[in-house]
Amino acid sequence: MLNATHDPSLTSWVASANDGLTDFPIQNLPFASVKKRGGNALFSIGVAIGDQVLPLAPLAKLNLAKGLVQEALQCCQDSTMNRLMTLTPAYWSALRADLSRWLQTGSAEEAILSPLLFSQSDAQFQRPCHIGDFTDFYSSIYHATTVGKLFRPDNPLLPNYKWVPIGYHGRASSIDVSGQAFHRPKGQTKAPNATVPSFGPCKRLDYELEIGFFVGQSNVLGDSLTMETAEQRLFGICLLNDWSARDIQAWEYQPLGPFLAKSFASTISPWIVTAEALAPFRVPFTREEGEPEPMPYLDSVHNQKFGAFDIQLACAIEAKNLPRTQLSHSNFKDSYWSIAQMLTHHASNGCNLQAGDLMGSGTQSGPSLEQAGSMLELTQGGKVPIEFENGQQRIFLNDGDTIIMTGHCEAAGAVRIGFGEVRSMVLPAKA
């Protein structure tokens, strides 16, 4: 899985890629749908290098590449990545290899490519692809157990949790990229002491710290995936804030699960870090002793050795008179289900996954309170307020609050890479 693009000794002629602090060294090279702000520029596919963006659309006309790479560059002229995602991993890997070579220190292509660069501070992003479907899983056993205890103290985990990756089909149309500002949702709720429900703005607005992963290539309706072929369908990973209206959810979710409490907004980071870039940070997929082994269709030797991703996640809040303050941190390697298992199970009934479909991991929490991936957990169901140094408190989110999520990977013998951030703000409910 490792190749020359992961070499920790590589440096770039883009100086900001070599400072050891950037999320985007030459060993990363994530993709986004991006354009330079202002003027008449159109969205196309770009790659991050240091604090710069290299648009890929012009490269298709420069005759720098041949074969698979040239075909991939033709797809990068599109405003979305769907056509690029339909290609096989061989195309994605070849493109990434040539980009790495062109951006390396001493590359002969520096003189050609350097005039194309523009600063990420001047970048405008849109959704990276047309997202046909969005499925959100429930893959953190720590989150599932903590939330379960709030509502079912004697039976926090339902019997199926340890056997099947639980998920629900979400709403794709309300997904946007970092910078999204959305109005507080309204809906029907029922107070514990009320005899009838009422309608109005959500009072228990929450965030969910998640990983998003994009499907590359499609499977034919009726065909399932093996764990091995599921690995080939993973195009890349982003950060995901899957907002939740907890009071609306509590009233509506029985018996069919999330509905309007989840459909009003979801926010993703604009940069998609490819599965190949994450190879140095894959770790064994393990479960605690005594946990049931996955069923055979959800198991493989590769998944046992490399199925988990060591991605460190963090969530912060900022608002008027409240400087940026970290709320929690967790790690995706603690997930009870791997990405390959979630994709394999999704297609196990013959469901036809499409290139550009987005999957959410579900809230990623760890075993301790400071690793909780939502305010529902941090405040113990709204019973214990979060207190900040300036005296402000939160039980759930206020209008004007901004939530910032970040993620990065570190490992011995590898260069640190990151995902950038996903930032979004709560606006007051519309009249």
Write a concise keyword list for the protein shown above:
Fumarylacetoacetate hydrolase, domain 2, SH3 type barrels, 8-stranded mixed sheet, 2 domains, alpha+beta, globular, 431 residues, 17% helix
Q: What is the overall pLDDT average?
A: 96
Dominant shape: globular
Q: Helicity range of the residues?
A: 10-25%
Low-confidence stretches: none
Strand content: 25-35%
In the CATH hierarchy, what is the class of the largest domain?
Alpha Beta
CATH-derived topology of the largest domain:
Fumarylacetoacetate hydrolase, domain 2
Termini separation comes to 53 Å
Number of helices, where a helix is a run of at least 4 consecutive DSSP H or I residues: 10
Gyration radius from CA atoms, angstroms: 22 Å
| SSE-based structural type | alpha+beta
DSSP E strands, number: 26
- Count of domains: 2
Task: Give a quick account of the main beta sheet: strands, pairing sense, barrel closure.
Answer: 8 strands, mixed
Q: Give the name of the CATH superfamily of the largest domain.
A: Fumarylacetoacetase-like, C-terminal domain
Q: Tell me which CATH architecture of the largest domain applies here.
A: Alpha-Beta Complex
Can you describe what's shown?
The chain has helices at 67-75, 82-85, 89-103, 110-113, 141-151, 227-232, 246-252, 301-306, 339-346, 375-378; strands at 31-36, 44-49, 52-55, 118-119, 123-126, 134-137, 167-169, 175-177, 180-183, 186-189, 198-201, 205-206, 209-215, 234-241, 244-245, 266-268, 273-274, 282-283, 308-309, 312-319, 322-331, 358-360, 386-387, 393-394, 402-409, 417-427. With 431 residues, it is of the alpha+beta class. It folds into 2 domains: 4-126, SH3 type barrels; 134-427, Fumarylacetoacetase-like, C-terminal domain (Fumarylacetoacetate hydrolase, domain 2, Alpha-Beta Complex). α1 packs across α3 (89-103). The chain starts with 30 loop residues before the first strand and ends with a strand. The mean pLDDT is 96.
